[in-house]
TrEMBL record, chains A, B:
Catalytic activity: a quinone + NADH + H(+) = a quinol + NAD(+)
Classification via Gene3D superfamilies: 3.50.50.100
UniProt source species: Flavobacterium suncheonense GH29-5 = DSM 17707
Keywords, sorted A to Z: FAD, Flavoprotein, Membrane, NAD, Oxidoreductase, Transit peptide, Transmembrane, Transmembrane helix
Enzyme class per UniProt: oxidoreductase
Span of domain FAD/NAD(P)-binding: 10-329
Name the record gives this protein: NADH:ubiquinone reductase (non-electrogenic)
């Protein structure tokens, strides 16, 4: 890789998500050379992906060019790259665009969808971790309804209008709410020749409550809200397979559907080359100490979803969410500067600011460390926090304008099939057949 | 196709561009059944495609869901379809989604890029007629600069930073201006390790002036504006080939470049099944009479770019632009209603409202029927007319906000590679090789 040698030590950061970007920002002009690698040239504001998937926001409103973030930083390099492996012996990152020596390495690769080894589900269901994936979901939803207008086969049409969301965490809950709002306000007008009442929105949760990382009160409210929106909630149901047409579960329950959105689990996006002892199997997260140092290495760090910092309070590491990632990124910047100056580093302590989820129009649930609330006020809090967290004034302004417009007009104008989603080779749902 | 029979005569419109949409709007609740077919589910505001290509606007801001336009019209159907052929004997449209009987057929398929039979140019150059194509150009521009940071081969880097736009009409001129603004204000900040002064923007025109459909004064001003922005203008140059690396011309002049944008010609997007006598060869436009009836047919009409209505004033038909398309669409709605009632139709007369082009920041040229002006005022007129012409309040508001933001901040935040553009198999520019 074409990075000039500097008199400063070189920190290589892999990943421009919440952890990587907050780290990069704090390393601005700190007498270090920083090389930031990412496979996209933009930072994604993941909490709003579901609104891109359901046409409420354009992709550009929740993406921010990474080069714009770092463009005025000294001795700072961004490279668009897929990292293949770490060579810890020679202190090198091996990527598709070449090798790069590091003095300090920070792995901030985040997480990816966990299919728990099921290849069928991986092939036939939709994930919603990236902007292209969200746009694929948007295209598929709209393509389904377009196809439903074409068929006289009732079972086929029902399957096209049936949506199964697996996973009752914030992603599944928010997506189900947004789909339900589409069903109520938009689809009946757009498809007057379809009976939209027949559209099914099924939210399938393995455990006994939705949002099971939040308070029981939030779960209860979320279920009530979704129920009132017409979402079918299936608790204690474990999905066992999906062949592109039928979802099978641990019991006799099955769903006939053209669309499964898999939000049932994530795992760390670990990379190769780190010693096996440092990796938590299945979770694919790297064990880190209180300074985010990866087990067994002095100059390799991991932050965010891919890092698991085990403590008494968090025996499985911190939740895989934006907040721990941002806080770890911020502290690690300080600690790297300290370490370079041979000063002692500061131990990380997670400041849990709470969590929240929105469920359609006017409704949200918010858990703060000492209180819970839900309803309209929670919804305003949710909007304010998300708006405020977006990078860039223009994105904030455009998102706010879209929200106000969508709210007043009961509308989402992003129902555009810009890139058709090419379904895998499933006979019964190919357009050609109809 | 699954369209119920109605007691009203059925009008089938192929294409939801300027002509098709204005026709559809005027046919609202007119005691006819209307079926509108398009291969996209949105209407594209083509005059602003170049701003999507250069990251100034998001795709969603210049696209509008067709179903939203027609959602409250009675006995009105939209279908996402690729039309393959017309069976004029049985009065049927043959499409990928099935056949459809028509009582009246309106061909509003617009135009497509004309490569004048050159397959190499078609394969290796970029067109800018649709939103996906514009997004491809955006991705390619950014990918080129990302790749330029990776190579030490100077010829390679120069070719990656060299842009050749073929065709000096409004599309080429506006795109060249927008690229020049990127070169000035954005790229030097985003790519501090590249010498952006080396970026070349070449605008190649076959005739002896740019904007040769406009007034000589406008040509002159446009050339002056582009010149001051650092665009290299090549007049009287005919491009003969592009092999993915080298552009050859009618003379010794060649360009080494990774990117050719082909804006040198359009032709009608004619469809099969219409008798040969009605088609103008090479131009691929259908000959229509003053009522937009296709030569030799009583109930088949063509409007917009695909129609050529020859008159004394317009011996080659009307210019292939939005205005004639909109005006023809509007009048044809009236005429179809008249025809159904056996009343005489009204002859079309083109009301030339003038034409305009913008060239970067603060500059535009405007030709009105009786006057010409250019500069800042022309630029305001350009913006006002384009804003006003966009469908939908939200698109207008979002575009305005983006323009104000981009203007004040000298910025375009849409520099996002959402879908990487996969280059054709050109050895020297594949990422893997570097």
């Amino acid at each position: 890789m074409n990075i000039p040698r500097s008199s400063f030590p070189r920190i290589v950061i892999i990943g421009g998500g919440f952890a990587g970007i907050s780290l990069a920002k704090k390393l601005k002009n700190k007498n270090v050379q920083v090389v930031l690698l990412d496979k996209h040239n933009y930072h994604t504001f993941q909490p709003l992906l579901y609104q891109v998937a359901t046409g409420g926001l354009e992709a550009g409103s929740i993406a921010y060019p990474i080069r714009k973030v770092v463009q005025e930083y000294q001795d700072f390099y961004f490279r668009l790259a897929n990292v293949k492996e770490i060579d810890t012996v020679h202190q090198k990152v091996l990527a598709d665009i070449g090798d790069l020596h590091y003095d300090y390495l920070v792995i901030a690769t985040g997480s990816k969808t966990n299919y728990f080894g099921n290849k069928d589900i991986e092939n036939y269901s939709m994930a919603m971790k990236t902007i292209p994936q969200s746009l694929n979901i948007r295209s598929l939803i709209l393509e389904n309804f377009e196809q439903a207008t074409l068929t006289n086969d009732i079972a086929e049409r029902d399957a096209l209008m049936n949506f199964v969301i697996v996973g009752g965490g914030p992603t599944g809950v928010e997506l189900a709410g947004a789909l339900a709002e589409m069903k109520k306000a938009i689809l009946p007008k757009d498809y007057p020749d379809l009976d939209i009442r027949k559209m099914g929105i099924h939210l399938v949760q393995g455990s006994d409550r939705l949002l099971d990382a939040m308070s029981p009160k939030s779960s209860e409210s979320a279920e009530k809200f979704l129920h009132s929106l017409g979402v079918s909630i299936w608790k204690n149901v474990r999905v066992t397979n999906y062949d592109g047409r039928t979802v099978t579960t641990g019991s006799d329950l099955t769903f006939e559907t053209a669309t499964v959105i898999w939000a049932a689990g994530v795992k760390g996006a670990a990379i190769n080359g780190i010693q096996a002892e440092a990796l938590i199997p299945r979770a694919d997260r790297f064990k880190v100490n209180e300074y985010n140092q990866v087990l067994g290495y002095d100059n390799i760090f991991a932050v965010g979803d891919v890092a698991s910092m085990i403590s008494e309070k968090y025996p499985y590491g911190h939740p895989m969410m934006a907040q721990p990632a941002i806080q770890q990124g911020n502290l690690l910047a300080e600690n790297l500067v300290k370490k370079i100056k041979n000063k002692p580093m500061k131990a990380f302590e997670y400041n849990d600011k709470g969590s929240m989820a929105t469920i359609g129009r006017n409704k949200a649930v918010v858990d703060l460390p000492k209180m819970h609330f839900h309803g309209v006020f929670a919804w305003f809090v949710w909007m304010f926090v998300h708006l405020f967290s977006l990078i860039g004034f223009k994105n904030k302004a455009v998102v706010l304008m879209n929200w106000v417009y969508n709210y007043i007009k009961f509308d989402r104008e992003g129902r555009l099939i810009i890139r058709p989603y090419k379904k895998k080779n499933i006979q019964s749902f190919t357009t050609d057949e109809i």
